[in-house]
Write a structure and sequence with these properties.
Layout (H helix, E strand, L loop, with lengths): L2 E4 L5 E3 L17 E4 L1 H15 L5 H4 L22 H11 L2 H5 L1 H20 L2 H31 L7 H26 L8 H30 L2
Antiparallel strand pairs: 1-2, 1-3
Helix pairs in contact: 3-6, 5-6, 5-8, 6-7, 7-8
């Protein structure tokens, strides 16, 4: 059987023909290139090492190349040009986006849990704690989105597949809803004690924020683990 590599995410497909769409990143058939069994094995082993946390910065920047592509710079990215280019490449090598995205992914479930408990038990302490946690998310989101955009451009060649579009929309929803939660609570810290309509709207906004975080995290995990 032939081996095919997705030049967007490096997924390896075995078959007579490449799939119509990559099952990992959603890229179409034209993004696949045929590779030798040895090259396919190297990419698969490299991915396993990365998932196990054992890949080094050198390994991330090396490996077999096909049609001018590499895992860090698919589709023949432009050559290095200046300090900004160097920094953005280092953000890929050192996995800046997966690291920074742990802030909203880890904090927001606590935020929503605290807000729900605060609404049920009228706890001002929990509500205030949730507010400060959400403020941390708001401050972290520009970094998360910048590193994500950099990774999308450099690692995935700016692919506009449905999967990437959904992930970016979800990230934008997290940024917007977290900002709205902070502003709403800052203006009216008694919102969790307010009438059912306002309190319900505020809690719904929190749930939307958490749901968008879950969607973005799920897609991110799919891209990392290739399943």
């Amino acid at each position: 059987m032939k081996k095919w590599r997705c030049t967007v995410c490096n997924y390896i497909h075995t078959g007579k023909e490449p799939p119509e769409n990559c099952p990992v990143c959603g890229a179409d058939k034209s993004k696949f290139v045929e590779v030798s069994p040895e090259e396919a094995r190297q990419y698969e082993e490299k991915q396993k090492n990365s998932n196990a946390g054992s890949s080094s910065a050198k390994a991330t920047g090396s490996g077999p190349k096909q049609h001018g592509a590499s895992q860090a710079d698919p589709a023949g990215a432009a050559p290095a040009s200046g300090l900004r280019d160097f920094i953005e490449r280092q953000l890929i090598v050192h996995h800046a986006h997966p690291v920074t995205v742990h802030v909203p992914n880890g904090v927001l479930p606590i935020v929503v849990l605290f807000m729900l408990i605060a609404a049920v038990f009228a706890s001002d302490t929990l509500a205030r704690s949730a507010f400060y946690f959400t403020l941390v998310v708001v401050l972290s989101m520009p970094v998360v989105m910048y590193t994500g955009y950099n990774e999308w451009q450099r690692k995935y060649g700016g692919s506009r597949s449905t999967l990437f579009m959904i992930k970016m929309i979800a990230a934008a929803v997290v940024a917007l809803t977290s900002l709205l939660v902070v502003i709403w609570y800052f203006i009216n810290p008694d919102v969790i004690y307010a009438g059912a309509a306002r309190r319900g709207g505020f809690l719904l906004l929190n749930l939307i924020m958490l749901g968008a975080t879950g969607i973005a995290g799920f897609i991110g995990g799919k891209l990392v683990f290739k399943d």
